[in-house]
Design brief:
Blueprint (H helix, E strand, L loop, with lengths): L2 E5 L3 H13 L3 E5 L2 H10 L4 E5 L7 H11 L4 E5 L4 H10 L3 E4 L4 H18 L10 E3 L2 E4 L4 E4 L2 E3 L3 H12 L5 E2 H9 L8 H13 L1 H4 L4 E4 L3 E4 L6
Parallel strand pairs: 1-2, 1-3, 3-4, 4-5
Antiparallel strand pairs: 6-7, 7-8, 8-9, 10-12, 11-12
The structure holds calcium ion.
């Protein structure tokens, strides 16, 4: 049975979430402030964490940062602000998804299911023996979750890594922003495709600009493509 930790200071919302989740067959645990939430998240094992952004004690972003430092428990942020900055910041720190308050419980449940499903898929399949994902000197070592160019390791955040992995495993194919959103972020972000552009910029500054290569190409009006180095 999947265990979900609810870190939310508004009692009404917290109780509502608990009832809905338990009705769906999940086991839940609740914390009403950031510090208690962080303690539970680190001490116990949860399959997923629902994390409010505005929390007393320690805010949600800080809780997220500290949890992700030690664990890879999936986190869905509950954000009150519908601002791209907030979403990008949360995702950048390693949140797996977010919903904007007030949210529809059905939407949240769908996102929870999607994340738990993805985690199942990833777990029992070690990438040993899988074909290396690469283009020229750029190489992804999926086993180590590591990207390198000419044997120099490039530090990437989780989202940057996932995005690069998706682009590179589909190299020489033009991918639309919608396709990228769906495959990297795991859900349709309701037309929020500027997130893709933001992350492409991050990748370009860490790879294209740094090594002075043209690696990620923009296909105007369509999306992005990574081409094999020799074909450039
Ligand atoms: Ca709150």
């Amino acid at each position: 049975m999947n265990r979900i930790l609810i870190i939310e200071d508004e009692e009404g919302i917290s109780r509502f979430l608990q009832l809905e989740l338990e009705y769906e067959g999940y086991k839940t645990e609740k914390a009403y402030d950031g510090r208690e939430g962080l303690r539970l998240a680190l001490d116990e094992d949860f399959d997923l964490i629902l994390l409010d952004v505005m929390l007393p004690g320690l805010n949600g972003m800080e809780v997220l940062r500290r949890v992700k430092k030690f664990k890879d428990t999936p986190v869905i942020m509950l954000t009150a602000k519908d601002s791209t900055t907030d979403k990008v910041m949360g995702l950048d720190i390693g949140a797996n998804d977010y919903v904007t308050k007030p949210f529809e419980i059905e939407e949240l449940l769908a996102r929870i299911r999607a994340i738990l499903r993805n985690n199942l898929k990833e777990d029992p399949s070690p990438s040993i023996g899988r074909k290396p994902v690469s283009s020229g000197k750029l190489l992804i070592n999926a086993q180590k979750h590591e990207v390198s160019y000419n044997e120099e390791v490039i530090p990437l955040t989780k989202t940057e890594y996932d995005l690069l992995f998706y682009l590179l495993s589909n190299k020489n194919i033009t991918l639309s922003r919608e396709q990228i959103l769906e495959n990297v972020w795991g859900f349709d972000y309701m037309g929020d495709t500027n997130l893709v552009d933001v992350y492409i910029r991050y990748l370009r500054s860490k790879i294209d600009d740094k090594y002075n290569i043209k690696f990620i190409h923009t296909i105007r009006g369509v999306g992005y493509i990574i081409k094999d180095e020799e074909e450039q």
